Amino acid sequence: MELKESIFKGVNISEAEEVKAEGEGENADDGCPNCRDTNGIRDYQRNIVICEKCGRVLREKIKDRGPEWRAFDQKQREERSRGGSPMTYTIHDKGLSTKIDWKNRDGRGNNLSPERRSLMYRLRKWQRRIRISDATERNLAFALSEMDRMSSQLGLPKNVREIAALIYRGAVKKELIRGRSIEGVASAALYAGCRETQMPRTLEEIAEVSRVDKREIGRSYRFITRELEIHLPPIDPANYVSRFGSELEISGEVRRKAIEIIKKAHEGKLTSGRGPTGIAAAAIYVASLECGERRTQREVAEVARVTEVTVRNRYKEFVEELSLDVSV
DNA sequence: AAGACGAAAGTGGTTGA
DNA sequence: TCAACAACTTTCGTCTT
Question: What pLDDT, in 10s, does the model give residues A11-70?
């Protein structure tokens, strides 16, 4: 009984922390109090969850709550635990192959007999040959480490890396790398991973951390998406709003309005074919005017990495087509 | 003086024959 | 593979606040 109580005590402590972290009695899940039935978008860079509609911060300091199961004794723990090395696509053998130590010692640390030693030598040799058997395996290992480097420079979450790795594997399987640079295809796969997960990253940003230029990445991207028959929608401009918004230090109100404008523009068919960053920039600009938190076209254009002219053009279209009132 | 606006010419990429 | 095309950029002059 005492034992049971102490376990429950432990559980209660962790739950108390959780409630505290949620903030002042806000909703526990990712629903927004303003816009009903919306999902929160996780912004892993700033470690927050924001509402996809209005940009309001729903939850801060996203944390790992640990396993979703509870165990009350050792036996249950063993049964329920699904631990062990996780399988991952970001290591060329998916992290599942056996590793053989290079020391000539046995489990107790004793030296091995000459026969055992030569056996281990042969095993290691085969292990090497199996793991990194040929050029394709070596290239795969290189590409994956390259993608890992780029995504950590861009601060991309793990799921993007996994998807990028998966796409790259698909490209290898279909022999699409031949005659193309590994780095180009790796960068393209990473970009595709961002598109797939709606991570607001532009081709330019990928190119900045890549060793190959934008054109090469773009070519590889088009090629592999065509050959693998993956159709990725362009990134929703609304996803850029929170990024640009925080760089411009605008309020949640402006962000909410900007997202609203983008939605209207989308309905008015003003978004297709246009660059999502330009649309996001113009929407933020209009929203900042309407809310009296004026930002210049220059400032907005700069964070969105487009020119003032583009902001103006989008802005003009918005005003004409959506009959927005910006005379305030 | 700074910002907004618009015209004109140039660039890189897409599309369809 | 080539030309037509739309989106976007660069540059620069004018207007507004």
Answer: 333 333 333 333 333 334 556 666 665 666 666 555 667 766 666 666 665 555 555 556
DSSP per-residue codes, A253-318: HHHHHHHHHHHHHHHTT-STTS-HHHHHHHHHHHHHHHTT----HHHHHHHHTS-HHHHHHHHHHH
A89 CA to C13 C1' distance (Å): 56
Indicate the burial class of A68 (C-beta count within 10 angstroms; 0-12, 13-18, 19 or more).
exposed
Q: Is A181 exposed, middle or buried (0-12, 13-18, 19+ CB in 10 A)?
A: middle
Nucleotide lying nearest to A296, CA to C1' measure: B3
Model confidence pLDDT, tens digit, residues A212-250: 888 888 888 888 888 888 888 888 899 999 889 888 888
Q: How far does the CA of A120 sit from the C1' of B8, in Å? A: 75
Query: Does A226 contact strand B, using a CB cutoff of 7 Å?
Result: no
Q: Tell me the nt nearest to A295, Cα to C1'.
A: B3
- In terms of Cα–Cα distance, which of A187, A188, A93 is closest to A140? A93
- Global model pTM greater than 0.85: no
Give yes or no for CB of A222 within 7 Å of strand B.
yes
What pLDDT, in 10s, does the model give residues A154-213? 889 988 999 999 999 888 888 888 778 888 899 999 999 999 898 999 988 888 888 888
